[in-house]
Structure formats: structure tokens, C-alpha cells
Amino acid sequence: MNSSSNLINALFIFVLAGFIGFEVIRRVSPLLHTPLMSLTNALDAIAVVGAIVLVGEHKSELATIFGFIAVVAATSNIVGGFFITDRMLKMFKSSRPATKPVAK
Amino acid sequence: MTPEFAGGQVVIEILYLIASVLFILSLKWMSSPTTARHGIWAGEAGMLLAIIGTLLRQGLHDYHLIAIALVLGTIIGVPLGRVAMTAVPQRTALSHAFGALCVTLVGSAEFYLRTPDISRFMMSVLSVEVILGGLTVTGSLMAAGKLQEILPQRPLTYKGQNFVNFLLLAIALAIAVTLVLNPGQRSLFPFMILLALTFGVLLIIPIGGADMPTVISLLNAYAGLSASAMGFVLDSKLLIIAGALDGSSGLILSIIMSKAMNRSFTNVLFGAFGQVQTSAAGAEVRPVRSATPEEAAAILSAANRVIIVPGYGMAVAQAQHKVRELYDSLTKRGVDVRFAIHPVAGRMPGHMNVLLAEADIPYDRLVEMDEINGDFPQTDVALVIGANDVTNPAARSDTTSPIYGMPILDVDKAHTAMVIKRSMNPGFAGIDNPLYYLDNTLMLFGDAKAFVGNIVRELGGGHA
User: Fold this and answer.
1) Is A57 within 8 Å of B368 when comparing Cβ atoms?
2) Of A6, B5, B92, B179, which residue is least crowded by CB atoms under 10 Å?
3) Model's pTM, two decimal places?
């Protein structure tokens, strides 16, 4: 019983998060689609938490080795992803004074 | 899972909740360039909290190994964050591969830890996780290889290709069903992974460079969905949310890209766009009008309104900084210069914007297709730099054209269209462009960077 209610909870969260994602990302300016992709990629690397647990719990050799590689791969995405997104966004400058928000 | 909610557990869950909120805010702030950098800070803070929360968990003892992995990942991540802006598409593809690799490995480890005592539902989600993850790993590596030009960019097709691909996927799914019904058959699992990995390779082989924006977005969606599936397996709400956000982002971008090419997903994945070039080549040679840099400079300096249309060719020639010099020297003369950005120009969504922003062109000069298309008839000069198919008027009128129906930039409606191009060879999709033969079109033959540099020198504003 417990596991099936967990499952329903998880489905609720998935569907609602998907809707939020749709609504939020629909509003992202096409100007920023490249940094958007590198940012979501960095956020997606949150999968590192699952990998950290595998390494830390050390339940089997295989799990530890897989977990270790997974942590390395995800961490490189986190670091590289945030880093390059920041570099990109720094480049976007307006010709108007910085204090004025963009029209519309 | 835990019968009683220990105090430490509550703290961890709250940290995860805050991280989820920060992730959503992070994406929300990406809506405008003025707030976008807050988005990064929110994302970084969320990530940090989530990792701290995870390290606080009970039952972890090997912190040493975790630390080594984190440091190693950072060492690899830093150079990946420092690549040149022109290499961003392949870097993005590579990071999709890394993300999916993490998900696939964790899924595989969980499989061996949990089977045979695993619920049917859990096994189904786990199969989704590793099949989607596996095909994204190799598919993204293939895409990165094509973008880096390690692999041939031309689509490779053979007879029965789609049949073979579907067959592989079907076998992988059949194994998944078998494992769901009978999780004890652990020896089947590696074959399922192997099939998913092979499917990823075969899926990208027939895809040409011009379709890369759609394909990268689709791989992005797969990476997100597999991470979300991993959240189901690990019962991690944070992971479900982050995966769903990433998945919907990839999906929205894929929809925008395929609309901008007037094609369906299935058509992109199974249509092998580029193969038309063989039939299109060998068309009769028609006369074109060409001009020298001096003539081009004279026409540009006499203009009031100029729209520059950049394409992948500008990226290849690394011409964005010369284009910026041209922009400066024309703006100084009082010419109104704007840039028309087609959604699929380049090799990934937003590619042109990043390159032009890198060259310090203000972002309010970069205008989307739908907003600028009505302005072409009042424009004196439309200067096309390294773009081809997105300016092809055949997409509007010629029902036999492979790109018929694709929304294009109405460059041909400008008083004068000038096209910088290496030669008269057809573009990436191999489709002849009637724009080049119009009376109001001038062809500027040469390397984009060198030609724009020559125009700037003629205008007297260059450094050369």
C-alpha cells in the first residue's frame, strides 16, 4: 500500500512539475535558448545525488564503480554547465541604458 | 521508506524542497536577459543545497571516494565550461551524453542491487530510465561527433534503415517487458542496455547538420525524462522535478525547432532530409549577378535600413567579430542595422544570438523572424551571411521543393538582397535557392570573414 501511494505522489509531482516547466519555459526569450539549454542541463545533473548515495553506501563493488563514474559525469555537467551559461549571459548586452527594463 | 521521520530526514527533505523552488525560479528568471543571471545564482544555490542535503544522509560512509569523484568531475567540468562560443553546440551535445551516462549507470547499479525483489512498476520505470538514458548517451555522442566534424555531417542512409532501427528498439522493449514480468532474469539486462546504446548510434547516423537544432533539443528532452524516471526509481521528488523541468524544456525547444522547419519529429528522425542533394545537384547553370566588396560597400553606405541575416556559415567562418565591425561602421554612418534571426539558423536553438552577443552586438538589435519579416519590403539592403535554406523563397511558392512550407526570412522582398557565399554549390540541405537568381540579388563570392572585412575596409571604418 505504502509503495503504491508513493507512486501516486510521484506521478502527481511529475505531472505538476511538467506543467510548471511548460509554463515557465514558454516565456523564455528565443534570444536565450542556447543558455537555457545549458542551464537546464546543469540542473538536470542533480542526478548526482543518486550517484553520491551509491558511492557513499558502498553496497557492492559494481554499484560503487558505476556510482563513481556517474558522480564524475554529473559533476562535470554541473560545473561546466553553470560556468558556460554564466559566460554566455554576461555577453548579452543592451544598447539601451542598463537601468531601463526591456520594453514589452 | 523510513517508518519514522527522523529529525535529520526532515532537514534533508526541506533542503530538497528549497532546491526545487530555486530550480523553478532559476528557469523563470531566464525569461529575460536582464534577470537571467539571477537564474544562474538560484540554480547554483539549489544545487549546493541539494548536494549538502545528500551528504547529510545517514548510511553514507565512503566520503573519501565521493570527494575524489566530485573533484575529478570539477576538473573535467571546468574546461567544458571554457570552450569557445563556436563550439557550444557540440559541448551541449556532449553534456547531454554525460547527464544520460550518469542516469544510465545509476539505473544499472540499482537494477543489480534490487533485483529480483523489485515491484513490476519499479522495473518498468527502471527500464524506461536505462533505455532512454542509454540511447541518449550514444545519440548525443554521435551528434557531438558530427558537430565537431569528427564524423561526417552528411546523413548516412541505407535501405531498410528505419526497419532495423525499429526492430532494435522493439527487441529492447521486449526484454524490458520480460524483466518486468520476471525480474530474476538478470542476464538479459546487459543486452537491453546494449540495444539501447546501438539504437542511439543508428538513430543519429541518418541525421544531417541542418536538423541538428531539432535533434539536440530532442536529446535534451530524453535526458530530462530519463532523469525524471530515475527520480521515480529512487523515490526522489527533487529529481522528478528537475527531470520534468529539463524534459519540458527540451520538448518545447523541439516543437519550436520542428515548427520552424515545418516538419514533424518523426520526419526529422526518420526522414533523412539531406539525401535530396543527389537529385537536386546537376541542375542547369543559371546566370547570377555578382558584386565586389567596393560595390557592396557603396550600396550599404547609401542605405537607410539594413537587415543582416546570419547563418551557420557565419559561425563556420568565425565572421561574427568582422560582422560587428560592419555593424559599427554602418551605425556610425546613421544606417539602421538589425539582425534577423531564424529559429533554426545555426546548429542549435539560439546559436546565432550567442555568437552575435559574443561579438558585443546589443541584443535588442537581434530580432526574431516573425517580428522582422514584415519589415523586409521597407528595407534597402538585406545582407545574408552564411545562411541559405532559411532564405529560400521556394519554401513559399514551390510545392515540389523539399522545404516547401518552411517559414523563411523574406530576404527577397528587400530592395536589394546581397548574399555572401563561397561558391554556387548548393547549401547544406542540397536545395537550389532561387533567391540567388533574382534581379535584385547580388552575390558576393568569398569567405564570409574576409569579405565582410573587405567591406568594412571600403567603408573606411575597419582596423585593417
Assistant:
1) no
2) B5
3) 0.89
